[in-house]
Structure formats: structure tokens, C-alpha cells
Known about the structure:
The chain has a domain at about 1-180 and about 235-260: NAD(P)-binding Rossmann-like Domain (Rossmann fold). The chain has a seven-stranded parallel beta sheet with strand order 3-2-1-4-5-6-11, with helices on both faces. A three-stranded mixed beta sheet has the order 12-9-14. Strands 7-10 form a two-stranded parallel sheet. The chain is of the alpha/beta class. Helices cover about 40% and strands about 15% of the residues. The N and C termini lie far apart (about 40 Å). The protein has helices at about 10-20, 40-50, 60-70, 85-90, 95-115, 145-165, 200-205, 235-250, 270-280, 305-310, 315-330; strands at about 1-5, 25-30, 55, 75-80, 120-125, 170-175, 180, 215, 230, 230-235, 255-260, 265, 285-290, 295-300. Nicotinamide-adenine-dinucleotide binds next to helix 1, helix 5 and strand 5.
Amino acid sequence: MAVLVTGGAGYIGSHTCVELLEKDYEIVVIDNFSNSQPESLKRVSEITGKIFPVIEVDLRNREDVEDIFKQFNIQAVIHFAALKAVGESVTKSLLYYQNNLISLLNILDVMDQYSVQQIVFSSSATVYGDNGRSPLKEETHTGAVNPYGQTKLMAEKILEDLSASNREWKSVILRYFNPVGAHESGKIGEDPGGVPNNLMPYLSQVAVGQRTHLSVFGCDYPTKDGTGVRDYIHIMDLAAGHVKALQFLENNEGCHTFNLGTGKGYSVLEMIHVFQQVTGIPIPYQIVDRRAGDIAECFANPKKAEKHLEWKAVRTLSDMCRDTWRWQSSNPFGYHPQSKMKTKKASGA
Length: 349
Ligand code: NAD
Ligand code: WQD
């Protein structure tokens, strides 16, 4: 019996595969590699010393998804596969609705057909929009402000309705806050491809010399130092949360939603400061205008996951910066080693 990991070659998926294999789960990975490289999964094998099936499948194609269920004895699914760039979702909304929702509907439909009715779903803190005051609890009113966030809200609703219609269906919805960092080996990490949208990969590309400076988006928010505050969570803590979610599914009916965050908020300037301290590398930055759509503050109340999943984030912000830098400095171009751009020498990790 295996756990099917969709989107398993991606950032969160690849780290979760390591955690699953180390906990002796059998896995099958499917991905269309639209935002990832097969190399990440080769490295998962290197880290764990285990091999596992990897199949190129686009989840929008139901027949290909069904072939996987014909071929393998699947016991549960962790569904990571989705497009996730907020800005792109505004300009290519149809692509986002098609990719994220048709993929979900296909996997659920095939699961139902094969009586595999346990799923862990990747949602996001983005579903809270600008509604609640942090720390955010799961019952905070939701309201996404972009098509990407809407796909997550719609997906959550589909899973809730499915469990309500049939008690055999068990689902866990995980609302991730801001995943950062890399596996402690430095062999796998975040490889955004192109200009990073998110703070940590941008910051580490500045550190490695690929970008001249970081733009800090706004310094006039009502926060501790005027810059945006977020709940950064180490990717291996997040990965561990998925194993806990699978264990929870074995004994609990219905659809359950959990925040996965640390409960602590750090500002952009604090992130720069800690990164510099941990790595010894100066990060040039400039304060620029706010980024459209950003909110001042967003951090989790993680108590529900602590209580019911028996999960807690244990790694510190220094761990996140150290591990990000180990990955970035030993893989300056992510999984593409051929680039000729000049980089700084690694230090501090
Ligand atoms: P990622 O882009 O690194 O991984 C997603 C993977 O899904 C990629 O490997 C991509 O190739 C694959 N994929 C996309 N569409 C597919 C399709 N139609 N068929 C098959 N494979 C497909 O992203 P990630 O950061 O690992 O995110 C994983 C999940 O977590 C996503 O659902 C994302 O929305 C969610 N999430 C991510 C963050 C974050 O900041 N990284 C935060 C909250 C939620
Ligand atoms: C963090 C802070 C920025 C880049 C996004 C998605 C969300 C989720 C996680 C998927 C903010 C500031 C950033 C930069 C900066 N993804 N910043 N300069 O916006 O909290 O969340 O990723 O579900 O849906 O919206 O993360 O890393 O982009 O930004 O100053 O170059 O860093 O303004 O305060 P965000 P982020």
C-alpha cells in the first residue's frame, strides 16, 4: 500500500517525500514538472537511500490519473499539485482555475472510483485574505483576494461537501503559512525558476550574488518596524505535519482544517538581520513602495494542530536561514547547474 504524492517533485512535495520515506511509508509520485525538475526526486533518493516510482502525469488528464490507480495499490493521497504564483493567477486566472480545480476534481473522482477516500490537501493562509487579526485561528472568516486564493477556497469547499455527503471520505486541509528553508543536507530546496516572487528565495539569491539587492516592499505598515510581518515555517517542520495528518486520517472521519505555522511573526527587516547574522553575508536592500495586495501582518494560531495532530514546529528562524543558505550556496542555480552567472563563495553554513 502506497501514499500517492501529487506534485511531489515541487518544493514542499520533495521535502515531504523525504519525511515519508524516512517514516517507512511507500510512495508513488506523480508530477507534470510544470514548475519542478525530476532532479529533485533523484536527490530525495540520494538522501533517503530509497527508490520509488515517479511518473510524469498531468492531473488535468483523468485517464492518466486513473492509470496510476490501476497500476498501484494506493491507500491515501497527499495532493500538492497546483500552480501557486499569486500575481500570475491574476493575469492567467482561467489557467489557475483549470489547473488547480480540474486536477483536484480528477483526483477525487478517481479516488472515489477506487474507494481510496483519504486525502491531505495543500491549502494556504492566503484564504484568510485581509479578514482577521493575527494570530489567525481556523474559524477566522475567509475571503481570498486573488484567483489563486479562490482556487484554494473552492477546493476546501469541495472537500468539505464531499465529506458531508459521504462519511467514508476523510480529509485534512492544511493551511500553510510561509514555508522557507531546505532539507538539512542542502541537497534539496526551493528552486523558483526565474525571478522569485517570495522573500526568502529572493534574499538568498541576493546573498549568492545572482541579484544586486532586495527590494523591501513598504516600511509604513502598522507593524513593529513598518515592514510586513509573516509566519515563516521551516519546510521540514511542514513536511512532518503531513505525516501527522496521514496518521490523523487513519482514526478520524470527516473533513478537518489545520493551520501549519509557528505562531510567531517576523518582519522583513528582522528576516534580513537574522539571515545576515547566520550567514555572515551582507544583504543590500532598498525600501520601495508597498506591493499591491500585500497585507501588514499574518501569523497563525497553531494550537489546533498541536492538539489534534500532535504536531508543533520546532525549528528556529536561525535554522531556516542556515538551511536556506546551505541549499542556495551549494546549488546557486537550483537544479540547473549549467548557468554561467558569477556567484559569491559559500560561507557561514
Ligand atoms: P511547487 O510549484 O514547487 O510544487 C507544485 C508541484 O505541482 C510542481 O512540481 C508542479 O510541477 C506540479 N503540478 C502543478 N500542476 C500540475 C498538474 N496539473 N499535474 C501534475 N503536476 C502539477 O509548489 P510548492 O511550494 O511545493 O506548493 C505545493 C502546494 O502547496 C501547492 O498546492 C501550493 O498552492 C501550496 N502552498 C504553497 C505555499 C508556498 O509558499 N510554497 C504556501 C501555501 C500553500
Ligand atoms: C513575505 C513578506 C512582502 C518579497 C505568498 C503568497 C501566499 C503563500 C505564500 C502560497 C511580505 C515582503 C517579499 C520581496 C519583500 N503562497 N517581500 N520583498 O506574500 O506572505 O505570501 O507566499 O499559498 O499565498 O501570497 O510571501 O514571501 O512573497 O512575502 O519585501 O522581494 O516579504 O511584502 O511582507 P506572502 P512573500
